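Q: I have 202 residues here and want to know how they pack in 3D. Can you give me a structure?
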Amino acid sequence: MSSLSIPTVILSVSACLLAFRIIIKRTAQIPQTVRTAIVETLDACLFAALLSLVIITFVVQAFYIPSGSMEPTLMIDDRILVGKFVYRLGSPHRGDVIVFRYPLNPQRDFVKRVIGLPGDRVRLRDGVVYIGAQAISEKSYTIKPDFGNYGPVTVPANQYFVLGDNRNNSEDSRFFGYVPRGNIIGKAVFIYWPLPRIGFVH
């Protein structure tokens, strides 16, 4: 993503619209009826901009998938909707696909699957993920087994261990560590583009 965030752009546009509205309203040379029409149009644009700001900040935001690290769940060029409100009501669950700010560079957004919850003891052996002594089944979403080993590690409080579904091509908690709770933007809930791939994220 660009260093100039979408909310910043919306706020900048809103400020320009507001300034233009003030100028138009105070310009006596413009006929009253024309001024009224322009001001009403600007008011509608301001309302739409501020509504979109509220939605993007608190409800839902669109994201683009640039890499294959989450294949086959998310493919390159997929567009997804991320529910920001979901974790305002509760905590992430194992298996959730989340978008988060990359711990090593918060200007970047990553998408991965939650594997380890706070307090979990996680290890990988020959491509199989164990939580404690229990192996978890991942056949429904992993693309290829990763036959490397990792851990065991214990996930700290308020942090999460995440992995990409394409284990052989994913930069995840095996490389950058845990994801703090505060870095999580929201839960990936829906693929809206391209059309043949429309559906919920599982």
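Q: Anything worth noting?
A: The radius of gyration is 22 Å. DSSP finds three helices and twelve strands in the chain.
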